[in-house]
Design brief:
407 residues, alpha+beta, 5-stranded mixed beta barrel, 5-stranded antiparallel sheet
């Protein structure tokens, strides 16, 4: 009876919510049996109350003889015996301590570990405490599949702490944005218009390529990718390529940088005078046709103009009537102007002028004579005439005086 009374007294000294020290007696069947120091009261510490990892081995956490600090959860009375034990938890004690540590830490960046993909976001763990990151706060772009973050450790900013509601919200996106802002500011401080910088192709679009300059993405417009015309970005660069580009313009406020890839590579007009000269006869391909002539590619990236008047000795109403895009032609170089990037070409200069038909000149001359003869001769009318009167003033009439005047 005295021993039972002592047991009751010791039990009365242990209450749910108490933080106590216990010694591990045995570890068996996924749980540890402990005795609470100073009371002789036994407790049960299960794997679930040690860790959130249900596949873990309890022997990796405790072994016989260990001393652990635990939180008393509730009293358990055996069904077949009069023994009284308590369910204790090491995990929840750590969580309580974590909650206490979180008070007033909103805005602080901590390292968390992704534990489970849940509806609407990602469940994470911080010092034994379970937190939640909404899907919209995981990255700067919306993440549909959060599974890839499970098992990863990363930094996140504490947004909200409410121990009473068991509410712990964090944001990974803000950490990324702040890091990007710092990197962007550093990059902009080093950039200057006209400088040559090295970057990595981050992504391709229909209108150009975005180059990562180390925290800032600059755009190489499709017209600045190559000296060739009408190229597609994917035919020039690939994602992951390291390239040298020239800075064309900087708009730090808008966060935009315009770049050029072709400005760092030799152009087709560089040293063109050594490749092409007046009087040269070369082969070319018709690249495009206009109302005033045809553009013929005579060297890679160099198109020369065959003016409509230089296509043929015969009259050409429209270049499309005698030439077609893609046609191979032989041309003569009339002029090379490297400064203005202009080349003048001629096709007819390599063709013999067609002979005139026999008798054509005579016919033309006779026709011209006939035209001159058929043209009415313009008579110069005298503005003043001298008329001599007869010596006598008799024997004349008005007809005699004015008869030769045309009325």
């Amino acid at each position: 009876m005295n021993e039972f009374e002592d047991l009751l007294n010791s039990v009365s000294e242990v209450n749910p919510g108490d933080v106590v020290t216990a010694e591990v007696l045995t570890v068996d069947n996924g749980q540890a049996n402990v005795v609470i120091d100073g009371t002789g009261v036994e407790g049960v510490l299960t794997l679930r109350e040690l860790t959130n990892d249900r596949d873990a081995d309890i022997n990796d956490f405790v072994k016989a003889g260990d001393t652990v600090e635990v939180l008393v959860l509730r009293q358990v009375v055996g069904k077949d015996t009069d023994t009284v034990t308590f369910l204790v938890s090491k995990k929840r004690l750590e969580a309580r301590k974590a909650w206490d540590k979180l008070i007033g830490r909103e805005g602080e960046v901590v390292t968390v570990k992704g534990t489970r993909a849940v509806k609407g976001g990602l469940s994470v763990e911080f010092e034994g405490l379970r937190g939640f990151i909404p899907a919209s706060m995981i990255d700067t772009r919306f993440v549909r599949n959060t599974e890839k973050f499970v098992g990863q450790e990363f930094d996140a900013k504490i947004k909200e702490v409410d121990a009473a509601e068991n509410r712990f919200i964090l944001s990974r996106r803000e950490v990324i944005e702040e890091a990007a802002a710092e990197a962007r500011q550093e990059v902009f401080s080093k950039l200057s218009e006209g400088s040559i910088v090295t970057g990595t192709v981050a992504r391709l679009t229909s209108f150009g390529a975005f180059i990562d300059l180390g925290g800032v993405d600059g755009l190489v417009h499709v017209t600045e990718l190559s000296h060739e015309r009408n190229v597609s970005p994917k035919s020039v660069v690939s994602v992951g390529d390291e390239v040298e580009v020239k800075v064309l313009s900087i708009d730090e406020e808008a966060g935009r940088v315009s770049l050029s890839l072709k400005a760092t590579t030799p152009g087709p007009w560089d040293g063109v005078e050594q490749k092409l000269a007046q009087g040269d006869v070369v082969e070319g391909k018709v690249k495009r046709l206009t109302d005033f002539g045809a553009f013929v590619e005579v060297l890679p990236g160099i198109d020369g103009l065959v003016h409509i008047s230089q296509i043929s000795h015969n009259r050409v109403e429209n270049p499309k009537d005698v030439l077609s895009v893609g046609q191979e032609v032989t041309v003569k170089v009339l002029e090379v102007n490297a400064a203005d990037e202009r080349v003048s070409l001629s096709i007819k200069a390599l063709e013999e002028r067609p002979a005139q038909a026999e008798g054509e000149n005579n016919n033309n001359n006779s026709n011209n004579n006939e035209k001159r003869q058929s043209r009415p001769r313009r008579q110069k009318r005298d503005t003043k005439r001298d008329y001599e009167l007869p010596e006598t003033q008799t024997g004349f009439s008005m007809a005699d005086l004015f008869g030769d005047i045309e009325l």
